[in-house]
Amino acid sequence: MDEQLAIARKNANTNKTAAKKALERKRVFQGYRDQTEGYITTLEQQIYAIESANINRETLGAMERAASAMSQIHGKLTPEKVDETMDKLREQNALGEEIVEAMNSINSANQVDVEDLDAELEELQQEQLDEQILKLSNVSVPGAVHGMPAAARGEHASKAPMAEEEDEDTELRQLQAEMAM
């Protein structure tokens, strides 16, 4: 093409016909060149379209495989089955809690009530005290009078204080002995 332009310039002043022919050939070659560039552009577009279609096909294939894998993983799993399973789990958890409560109520029924024990102990102590009082009431009056302090027997404080203390100690020992029975 550059060659034709050089010929046209050389002949432009001397041989106008040869110069025109060289310019004509130049334009023809430019037309072929433009046409070839158009073909190349079209071919490149086709290559891009094919590559894009191939990428789309590969993507679709991967998505189909993923869908198949997920379908296999999920199997016959449905939201309704999941809800049903969760309901069963909640029921079993509630049942387990009821069992624990029942077991705890059995244990609490077997536990000893401290207040009841205290009341029963007081009752036993009162019975023992009542029995001792009954035994004391069976003692003869003259013996009981001698066991009383001197002031209660109507005696005057003429005895020495030491003797009174001994009498009180003796009386205390007698009462303790009777209470121990």
TrEMBL record:
One of its GO terms (cellular component) is cytoplasmic side of plasma membrane. Residues 107-134 form a coiled coil. Residues 150-181 are annotated as: Disordered. Keywords: Coiled coil, Endosome. One of its GO terms (biological process) is vesicle budding from membrane. InterPro entries: Snf7_fam (IPR005024). It is found in: Endosome. Its main location: other. It holds the Pfam family Snf7. Belongs to the SNF7 family. This is Vacuolar-sorting protein SNF7. The gene is SNF7_2.
